[in-house]
Specification:
The chain is of the alpha/beta class. Helices cover 33% and strands 21% of the residues. The strands form two sheets. A six-stranded mixed sheet has the order 6-7-8-3-9-10, with helices on both faces. The chain has a four-stranded antiparallel sheet with strand order 2-1-4-5, covered by helices on one side. The structure holds adenosine-5'-diphosphate (ADP). This is Cobalamin import ATP-binding protein BtuD.
Amino acid sequence: MSTMTASDRGSEGRTASQSDEAVVELSNVEFGYTASPVVEDISLRIDPGEYVAVVGPNGSGKSTLMKLMLGLLRPDEGTATLFGEPSHVFDDGARIGYVAQHASASKEMPITVREVVRMGRFPHVGFGRLSAEDDRIVDDALETVGMTAFANRRVTKLSGGQRQRAFIARALASEADLLVLDEPTVGVDAESVDAFYDLLESLNESGITILLIEHDLSAVTEHADRVVCLNREIYFDGPTEEFVESDALARAFGTAATFLGGN
Ligand code: ADP
């Protein structure tokens, strides 16, 4: 097995069949927790290497859409696939790295950064022990996110930005192809936010697909290549530059929304 790290995972690391396969594909998806749908008529495809942001007002169905994509919810109508398999049966967790809001990270977790990142190797070793090679991959992941110096620190002792980096390193150690981030910079101090988005950008350049749910519209327009603007239905899906020029934002959010004001 190779010791591929995030920094050398380019397109050469992918086989042709992998790169032809959609990462996520939703076709005419509708879903409601009750009788009335909270998302409907959703069709979209995310290809390997894309950097996609999902935006929309509070309650517009962003988290629901993400859960449908990841197979945590099943569509009432339509189909959802993940790496070519129906999302709800997909079980190769190592291919997906999930970074939740900082606020929802457990403050009680009494483990170190290195232990968090080593968890990324568990799907690869089953009940076996981590090998020296696994530990090299862990070290590489720590280095990629700039957390080598904090490897032995407890995650409870980290700043919000550092903690998010540790969770990204865990995804890198698992060699995830898809990184899903749900408002990852909520509660992260302003200086660390820029560095965090720079990190995401370099991971995306190394071939990792990024799906970002974000309320900070300026971050989205600065970093994502493609925007999906949602409010129960898709109001816009296309290149970020076209989103900025379009009236989708005003239609989905109401006229008060601006790119400067975020939410
Ligand atoms: P967003 O992530 O854009 O804020 P959500 O997907 O969380 O939107 O919510 C979309 C709609 O679904 C909202 O009206 C919300 O109240 C409702 N909703 C979300 N989760 C549940 C749930 N578990 N049970 C019932 N209704 C829910």
